[in-house]
Design goal:
Length: 512
């Protein structure tokens, strides 16, 4: 930050304000990546706000049985800290959480963490050209804010009449109740998404009876999981290039899959994989029919599992191919009128992507919140990172970034973009950068246009990717390479530039 802020900072600090060049909100994978990369880039005046008492984000919160990654571990680690110690090709939740905590220690960023500090409100001031953040532990001021709160933060519950009358135990998969012993219990799992396919096989052999409520079936493909022997882990540690090569191979496979998913007609090519999995793992034709989707593979997120479909064939497991529509005491009522009596309800119903909590706490120019702005249109961002009326604010894993690849890798590309922007403000006498509305609108028009013939939009399913405005606000329409190239350098020509007040007026151009 410019030298002329030092006296101001001292004055503000005397008032109990905490002043930094950058504030990062969230200490999950993307927040820790931002912290390490900022520090390595020489941008060392920053803190990380975390509402909990431990790092980890979604990997701290989600502790349900079977919880783990759904892409190969080789690509699910920081580029600056490859992990040769993964015990499996698909790492489990405890391993990922331990890896995040080890990274904090190894890169010396523990002192940057502010635990028990929940962001309540973040507002931009044109007059002060900075962000003011009200938290549960005081007020923070910053020139730049990186919102690294992730996608999977707010558990989503279906609206169910009579849920308050349920006499048993109920909880969401993201807030698993480990005090409840499921042995000999009648358990209902609501939903058949990513978490459900991990939970069901783990608890099916424990419970007395398991009822799985399936609103719509989903495509399940093989999960190429296997233990990584200790000698291979040692080899990766001694020969880092070998692990980098494996990462490269996995990345190429994922990029190819993303390319296939870009068009509905090419996504159909994967249909035989899903149908073959059903034929080999579900011998009962009636059950197989209930589990066979009527939409193109890839329209909804692919589910990877070798154990989910066989678990549904167990004698104590019942698949109800209908949504849960009501609750009456300990009785659950399905859409077709079927009634089931249970002791425990597990909601494996995903997360609220349309209205993420952080958007309700970001107050842009004019005083409205980002969620109010998105309510009028749809969740939108420029390169999934910036929005108009919010200068110097950066969303990690914002709207329209999801694809079949490591979200951590994509977040790291965004962080490089953010670092480039902060460096520009440091070197060019700039106080604020704000994406130009015209460029923002044109970009999002291209996003929606090119998503029009993707499998996500035309695959024949009712997907959470599409909001009430008919817009796909979740997925990226182009290749992984294009996203990384777009984020490789900060494109200042698409931004309004506010120079230091003692130098030039607002919106003077700056060379990138």
């Amino acid at each position: 930050m410019p030298d002329n802020r030092s006296s101001t900072a001292e004055f503000e600090d005397s008032l109990g304000l905490q002043v930094h060049e950058v504030v990062i909100v969230g200490s999950g994978l993307s927040g820790i990546a931002a912290a390490v990369k900022l520090d390595r880039a020489g941008i060392d005046d920053f803190v990380v706000l975390e509402k909990a008492d431990r790092v980890g984000g979604t990997w701290r919160e989600n502790t349900y049985p079977g919880c783990g990654v759904d892409i190969p571990s080789a690509v699910y680690c920081f580029t600056f800290n490859p992990n040769p110690k993964w015990s499996r090709n698909f790492a489990s939740q405890p391993e990922v959480l331990a890896y995040i905590e080890d990274t904090v220690v190894e890169f010396g960023i523990a002192e940057r963490l502010r635990f028990g500090t929940e962001l309540l409100d973040a507002s931009w001031s044109d007059a002060d050209r900075q962000w003011t953040m009200q938290t549960t532990r005081g007020t923070y001021l910053a020139r730049h804010v990186v919102f690294a709160t992730g996608l999977l933060t707010e558990p989503k519950f279906p609206p169910l009449p009579g849920l308050e009358t349920f006499t048993g135990t109920k909880f969401h998969s993201a807030t698993w109740n480990h005090d409840i012993d499921l042995a000999d219990k009648r358990v209902a799992v609501i939903g058949t998404g990513c978490s459900s396919v991990q939970i069901v096989p783990e608890i099916a052999s424990v419970v007395d009876e398991l009822i799985v409520f399936q609103r719509t079936p989903a495509w399940v493909i093989p999960r190429l999981d296997f233990p990584i022997p200790s000698f291979v882990q040692t080899f990766f540690r001694l020969v880092p290039a070998a692990q980098w090569f494996l990462r490269f191979v996995c990345d190429v496979i994922l990029r190819t899959l993303a390319l296939v998913m870009r068009r509905e007609r090419t996504a159909r090519l994967l249909g035989p994989v899903g149908r073959g999995q059903l034929r080999s793992q579900v011998p009962d034709p009636t059950l197989r029919a209930m589990l066979t989707p009527d939409f193109t593979i890839g329209c909804k997120r692919l589910l990877l599992s070798n154990t989910y479909l066989p678990a549904l064939s167990r004698s104590n497991v019942t698949l109800l191919p209908h949504a849960l529509t009501a609750v009456d005491g300990d009785k659950l009522i399905a859409a077709d009128g079927t009634e089931k009596f249970v002791d425990v309800i597990v909601f494996a119903t995903g997360f609220e992507l349309r209205y993420p909590p952080i958007a309700k706490r970001i107050r842009v120019r004019g005083g409205s919140t980002l969620s109010e702005q998105w309510d009028r249109t749809s969740p939108e961002a420029y390169l999934a990172t910036t929005v108009p009326s919010a200068p110097n604010a950066y969303l990690l894993l914002g709207p329209n970034i999801v694809m079949y690849n490591s979200l951590l890798s994509l977040a790291e590309s965004q962080i490089d973009y953010v670092i480039d922007a902060i460096r520009l403000t440091r070197s060019s006498g700039v106080e604020a950068l704000e994406v130009i509305e015209q460029h923002f609108a044109a970009f999002n028009e291209r996003v929606q246009r090119d998503l029009g013939n993707s499998v996500y939009n035309t695959g024949g399913c009712a997907s959470f990717y599409i909001d009430e405005h008919g817009k796909n606000f979740v997925t990226w329409p182009w290749s992984t390479a294009k996203l990384r190239k777009s984020l490789a350098h900060f494109d200042v020509e698409n931004y309004d530039v506010v120079r230091n007040r003692h130098e030039l007026p607002r919106s003077e151009s700056v060379s990138g």
